[in-house]
Amino acid sequence: MTRRTTDQTDRTDRTDRSDRSDRNERSERPDRPSAAAKPVRWAAEAVAAAPDGIRPHLDHSAQSLWRVDRLIEELRREGSPYTAVANVLRGLGAYAGEVIVRQTGGEWWGSAGDHWVRTPDGRLWEPLDESRRCFGGHGSLRLLCRDAMRGRR
């Protein structure tokens, strides 16, 4: 299982931080970059759409990603076509990214419609891509988070 990370020096096209919205002022972390707006919304939508038995456990802890991995595995076993679950996978990947951001003090980066999480040690993580790999049977959001937290200070 291969996880892709990108060195910070490879990504210089970070989204503009000066474009703050009122929504950022109401969030838990008012200093969040504008790159966080979409992934935060996708994560919130994924939590709201989660089955009742899982939703209370989606508390943005690293342990909650075990349930997310199981949910994605269940979608795959049911034979759901990718096109039918693409938005769900995006939301679950964004949720995993939010877990990494909150657990490590990282931040969202984005460019040209792609989104990554940059941890304080300078590594970039691709939780949205990892959710797609998980659906294909080749990834784990829980393990991605574990690996990202290894560099936590």
Walk me through this protein's architecture.
By secondary structure, this protein is of the alpha+beta class. It has 6 helices and 4 strands, in the order βααααβββαα. The protein has a 4-stranded antiparallel beta sheet with strand order 1-4-3-2, with helices on one face. Helix 3 (64-77) runs antiparallel to helix 4 (82-104) and helix 4 (82-104) packs parallel to helix 6. The longest helix is centred in the middle third of the chain and has 23 residues, at 82-104. It is globular, with a radius of gyration of 15 Å. The two termini are 26 Å apart. Mean pLDDT is 82; it is low at 1-30.
Key features of this structure:
153 residues; alpha+beta; 4 strands
Summarize the model shown.
The protein is an alpha+beta fold. 48% of the residues lie in helices and 10% in strands.
The largest sheet, given as strand count, sense and whether it forms a barrel, is: 4 strands, antiparallel
Structural class: alpha+beta
Number of helices: 6
The radius of gyration is 15 Å
| Quantity of strands, as a count | 4
Quaternary structure annotation: single chain
Q: Strand order within the widest sheet?
A: 1-4-3-2
Kindly, what is the distance between the CA atoms of the first and last residues, rounded to a whole number of angstroms?
26 Å
Strand content: 5-15%
Task: Give the overall shape.
Answer: globular
How much helix is in the residues?
A: 40-55%
Model regions low in confidence, pLDDT < 50 over at least 5 residues: 1-30
Order of helices and strands: EHHHHEEEHH
Average pLDDT, rounded to a whole number, is 82
